[in-house]
Amino acid sequence: MVHSEGKPANTEMLPVKGVCVVEKFKNAVAADGKIFLGDELIKQLSREELIAVTLHEEGHRKYKKKIFGGFLFLTCFILMLCEFLLSDVLLLFLIPIYFVVTVLLCYYSEFKADNYVVEQGYATHLISALQKMRSWGFGAVHTPTHPAISWRINRVCKKLACKKQL
Question: What are the extents of the domains in the chain?
Answer without folding.
Answer: 47-165
